[in-house]
Write a structure and sequence with these properties.
It contains two helices and five strands. It is of the alpha+beta class. The protein has one domain.
Length: 97
């Protein structure tokens, strides 16, 4: 099974923290990709993170990505990070540290 990978060219420092762009494997749900990405950025085991469904409707998020176009995006906070999910399934995590 493929996992979310870090696009190291997408890592950069900015005034609001460290931003990392993740590429979601086709067979990975966007919610799993988000948890893996936040786990990587924060250095926290995925099972130690709060449930994603506590901050966003995960079913709606999956449907949004499945039906979304390239101009679709949603941004929310999770585990102290700013998460942006694009209609094509791309995930961007900004760690405030």
């Amino acid at each position: 099974m493929e996992h979310t990978s870090i696009n190291t060219d997408g890592q950069r420092e900015n005034s609001s923290g460290h931003t990392t762009v993740f590429e979601r494997a086709e067979d990975t749900s966007v919610c799993v990709a988000i948890v893996e990405a936040v786990s990587t950025v924060t250095g926290t085991e995925p099972t130690r993170l709060d449930p994603l469904y506590g901050v966003v409707d995960t079913d709606a998020l999956e449907r949004l990505v499945e039906s979304g176009g390239t101009d679709t995006e949603i941004t929310f906070s999770f585990e102290g990070c700013r998460i942006t999910v694009f209609g094509d399934g791309g995930v961007v995590v900004t760690d405030p540290n």
